[in-house]
Write a structure and sequence with these properties.
Layout lengths: L6 E9 L11 E8 L8 E8 L7 E8 L9 E9 L2 E6 L4 E2 L7 E7 L7 E9 L2 E9 L4 E8 L7 E10 L6 E5 L5 E6 L4 E4 L14 E4 L9 E11 L2 E6 L5 E3 L6 H11 L9 E12 L9 E13 L31 E7 L2 E2 L11 E4 L5 E5 L4 E9 L2 E9 L6 H16 L2 E5 L2 E5 L5 E7 L2
Parallel strand pairs: 1-8
Antiparallel strand pairs: 1-4, 2-3, 2-5, 5-6, 5-7, 6-8, 9-10, 9-16, 10-11, 11-12, 12-13, 13-14, 14-15, 15-16, 17-18, 17-20, 18-19, 20-21, 22-23, 22-24, 22-30, 24-25, 25-26, 26-27, 28-29, 29-30
């Protein structure tokens, strides 16, 4: 006759010192582990999961089988608090159990990563042209907002970005991926009390100057103003957009340049598909506006400041972790096209869509060399050449020259406008595979798209 399996329990409480409220869907988990073998992973012999966790203290009672407990075993408790898979708190000391210790057990959890969200960090980081004030907002839904203010430059000297963040497993680095050519790397320090700015490769910057952004006492989200792309829809007097950079869906305010966007959408939308989402590009402001629903608080809303382009039949680029190869051995196109070394084709000039021309007219293109500070391209008739200077998000084109071919008056007029716009460019930004070139006031002069 088989003896019945005997069972026991380990009971106790877990808490943390920080005076913060957990998200309503946070999850608490505590396990009994045997870590007797130093050369092997710990073995779990008991577990309890509380979802939702509620607020501390967390009371637990973990069942285990007596048959799993051996004299050679070394047993300890490990507890975690997670929100949507992200680790918020964890026990960081060895708490022995099952070897005569008294119960109930008391666990103190320590904050990891950067703690509860939303939160904001700010600091002045030295740059090539002087100090740059960095402001970073992180939200619990995995989105971020970033503003850089170049303190030694005249206005407009603030440049914004939005996108998605993630904590890298292993390194714990915070990676921001948005409309920039390259990701931004930051290292959380002191349980999120500070973020350390890392270099473009994600390594610490070797310098005696400040490289820290300090956490603000309260979240202080910016209202980003930037060039955006997204899937826009309008139906039953309600407008919304799903932003390509963050996948957020925002209501669109019926102010600013909304009517131009609305007219373009209604003309391009299939007549048999009301409400069909279409890809649009625009200059916009993300800010608080009263909710359209009565009794609801204000919500983040997109204000269209300047409508740019509409692209029926296209969608947001699909996210990709890295450049992969296709079945034929050729590399697939990158998620974010690099500024230099890419052939950029003109889509819009001064907010007006430029229709690609058939031969004998040339495509209007721009290429910035990756090896030197030289540019090449075409204005639609003549070949262009010249130089450029590049510092962060500022760019200037100079010594522009061209061949002297003659084309139709229409082509020559567009080419002249194109070269005049290039001379006024002072800032660049990339949203996936779209390049925006703007003047000193932040007005978008040229919108280009990476070629295949």
């Amino acid at each position: 006759m088989t003896a019945p399996a005997m069972a026991g329990t380990v009971s106790g409480t877990a808490t943390f010192r920080e005076r913060i409220a957990l998200p309503p869907d946070a999850v608490f988990e505590v396990v009994i582990e045997d870590y007797a073998r130093a050369d092997a992973p710990a073995t779990v012999i008991g577990r309890q999961r509380i979802a939702p966790a509620g607020q501390p203290p967390f009371r637990f009672s973990i069942p285990y089988k007596d048959s799993d407990v051996t004299p050679r075993g070394r047993y300890t408790l490990r507890a975690t608090l997670r929100h949507q898979g992200r680790l918020l708190f964890s026990s960081d000391t060895i708490t022995p159990v099952l070897s005569g210790q008294k119960q109930p057990v008391e666990l103190l959890l320590k904050q990891v990563g950067f703690g509860a969200l939303p939160a904001s960090w700010q600091g002045d980081i030295p740059g090539a042209g002087g100090a740059i004030r960095w402001h970073v907002d992180l939200a619990a839904d995995g989105t971020y907002q970033l503003r850089q203010i170049f303190l030694n430059r005249p206005q407009p000297n603030a440049f914004d970005d939005i996108g998605r963040w993630r904590l890298e497993p292993g390194t714990g680095r915070l990676v921001l991926r948005g409309g920039r050519e390259a990701p931004v790397f930051l290292q959380p320090l002191d349980a999120g009390a500070a973020l350390r700015k890392l270099d473009l490769e994600g390594a610490p910057i070797s310098s005696a100057q400040n490289d820290r952004l300090k956490r603000l006492p309260q979240p202080a989200p910016i209202d980003p103003r930037l060039q955006l792309t997204g899937m826009f829809t309008y139906m039953a007097d309600a407008a919304s957009i799903r932003l390509c950079a963050t996948s957020q869906r925002l209501p669109v305010a019926m102010e600013g340049d909304f009517l131009a966007l609305q007219r373009a959408y209604l003309q391009a939308r299939p007549s048999d598909k009301p409400g069909q989402p279409l890809l649009v590009g625009l200059q916009g402001l993300i800010t608080q506006r009263p909710s359209m629903e009565e009794g609801q608080p204000p919500r983040r809303t997109l204000v269209v400041e300047k409508f740019g382009t509409i692209n029926p039949g296209q969608g947001c680029p699909k996210p990709a972790r890295a450049q992969k190869r296709s079945g034929r051995g050729q590399p697939r196109r990158q998620l974010v096209a690099p500024l230099r070394g890419t052939t950029w084709k003109l889509l819009a000039l001064g907010g007006e869509t430029v229709v690609p021309r058939q031969p004998p007219g040339r495509a209007i293109e721009l290429q910035l060399s990756a090896e030197n500070l030289r540019l090449a391209g075409s204005g639609g008739c003549n070949r262009l050449m010249g130089g450029f200077s590049l510092e962060g998000e500022t760019i200037r084109f100079f010594q522009l020259a061209s061949t002297r071919m003659a084309c139709s008056p229409e082509v020559m007029a567009i080419e002249q406008r194109y070269t005049e716009a290039l001379a006024l460019v002072r800032r660049w930004s990339i949203d996936k595979r779209s390049l925006m070139l703007q003047d000193a006031s932040g007005k978008t002069l040229l919108l280009l798209q990476a070629g295949e």
